[in-house]
Amino acid sequence: MEELVVMAKKFREAASRGEQLGLSEDEVKFYDALANNESAVRELTDETLKKIAHELTENLRQSLSVDWSERESVRAKLRLMVKRILRKYKYPPDLMDGAVELVLQQAQALGESWSEEA
């Protein structure tokens, strides 16, 4: 029973985190993927990471097609789009490739729920 209480508390904290950051649930996932790079956190402001997360969410939501995960050409297009957004905000290049892959993994997971909403 105690485990359930702890889990419920963690869930509430996670839900309020998006509100505290001023980001949607989807944007928080991209924000976390970007903030995974320590040099990005050091070099970029929190506001910049939030802007990147917001722009990534909007662009990926518009760009995802149902079968994007299975077509390498679509993945390559999305990878380029993510890199352009990161460069635009001067995201540190040292771990950019890792950030791009994390963002694409998040996008793939979110893409399934986004296609269900459409």
What do you see in this structure?
The chain is mainly alpha-helical. The protein has one domain. Helix content is 80%, strand content 0%. The protein starts with a helix and ends with a helix. The model has no long low-confidence stretch (mean pLDDT 79).
Beta-strand content bin: under 5%
Order of helices and strands: HHHHHH
How many domains is the backbone divided into?
1
Overall spatial form: globular
Helix content: over 70%
Largest sheet: none
Query: What structural class is derived from the secondary structure elements?
Result: mainly alpha
Low-confidence stretches: none
Mean pLDDT: 79
Number of helices: 6
The beta-strand count equals 0
Q: Rg to the nearest angstrom?
A: 15 Å
Distance N to C terminus: 38 Å
Q: What attributes characterize this protein structure?
A:
80% helix; mainly alpha; single chain; 118 residues
Protein topology:
Layout: H1 2-21, H2 25-35, H3 38-43, H4 46-63, H5 72-88, H6 96-117
